[in-house]
Structure formats: C-alpha cells, structure tokens
Amino acid sequence: SSVTAELNRLRELLNASRLLDEGVVVTEIIAASPNPDNQYVQINKGLNDGVYLGQAVLDAYGLMGQVIDVNDLTSRVLLISDSRHAVPVQINRNGLRAIAYGVGALNYLELGNVPATYDIKVGDLLVSSGLGGRFPEGYPVGRVSEILIEPGESFAQVKVTPEAQLNRSKLLLIVFRSDQLINETKSVDSKEAKDAL
C-alpha cells in the first residue's frame, strides 16, 4: 500500500539523513486546510508527545514546515509554502545563502534578494542552512526551477520547487533537536523519553 511505501521511504530517510543525535517521531496528517491563504496541516501528535512550537517537520523528501500550534493530542504545522513562512537556505553546490519564502502556492517558493551575479543555476538543490536556529541544517528544501533576470535589475527572481510533497504526503517526521531533548526529557520519565525516540 502507499502508506507502507511511505513508511519504507521514511526509514530510508532516517538511515541516510543527518538526524544524527536528533530524535524524531513519526506522525500522521489528520486534516489539511483547504484555504490557499492559510496553508497548514494538522497532525496527530501534541503536547503529550513532547511536541513544541517551532519544531521542524519533514516528509520523506524534505522540509515540510514547522509547528505553530500545539494541543494535548494534535498540532498544527505551517507549510513552507504559506506566505507567512520563510526558511534560511543555502545552495548545496557552493554554500551560498538565501531565504526561501512561501508565496501561498503549493508548487513553488521564491528566493528573496538574490543578486543577479549570484552563482545559482536551474536544478540547484537548496538545503536548510541552520541559520536562526529554527531548522536543523542540511535538510532538502527545494530545487531551483526558474531564474529571471530583467535587464538592468540588480536582483534575480528565483523560483524553487519544494522537495517535500506538500499536498501528497500522509506520514511526517517531527524533529527533536538534541538540545531540546535534554530540556524536554527532564519533565518525562526516562522510559517515556526512550519510547519517544
């Protein structure tokens, strides 16, 4: 089934990823906002599972979004495509930095303030840079799909296709930063902490 395939893909991601000392919890999407101006999904993990505001959420392909609202049993995740969302990224090929902004469309993001002289190419993979501390470093965010440079303009318009399957994935990973784990596990007993991992 597709859910089995998705679980296998998540396992592969975990084995291959940089989630070195970061813990993860698998969660399922239980609802999605139909409103294009308000792009979020609801997941079936919450305070009882140690979920906290600002936590990064991935699908099997890349960064999906971040937790913006937590209840006991469920949480809301703002998608990277939402127009209120921004994520610091770097070009995987050369380390150059930029910020990927949501524009309210599920199929593309935009990069802000990219100089026309930047070494950026269609097909370049963008990964989270870890700047600002909200997202761990090195997660796939998207690939450059279009670069427009108007004559005489000093900045390029760059469109990015998200790696995460924003409107198709059902199973997601919530990432626990290692420093947060220390804080979170003080309040739960160690067996629960182990189960959470």
Summarize the structure.
This protein has 197 residues and is α+β, with helices and mostly antiparallel strands.
Query: What fraction, in percent, of the residue positions are helical?
Result: 10-25%
Shape: globular
Computed Rg: 17 Å
Please, what is the average pLDDT? 85
Strand content: 35-45%
Uncertain stretches: 181-197
Count of DSSP E strands? Answer: 12
List keywords for this structure.
alpha+beta; 15% helix; 197 residues; 6-stranded antiparallel barrel; disordered C terminus; 3 helices; single chain
Detailed description of the structure:
The structure is a single chain. The protein is of the alpha+beta class and 197 residues long. It contains three helices and twelve strands. The protein has helices spanning 2-16, 178-185, 190-196; strands spanning 23-32, 40-43, 56-58, 63-70, 75-79, 86-91, 97-102, 109-115, 125-128, 140-148, 155-162, 171-176. The strands form two sheets. The protein has a six-stranded antiparallel barrel. A hairpin with a 5-residue loop joins strand 6 and strand 7 (97-102). The protein is globular, with a radius of gyration of 17 Å. Residues 181-197 have low confidence and may be disordered.
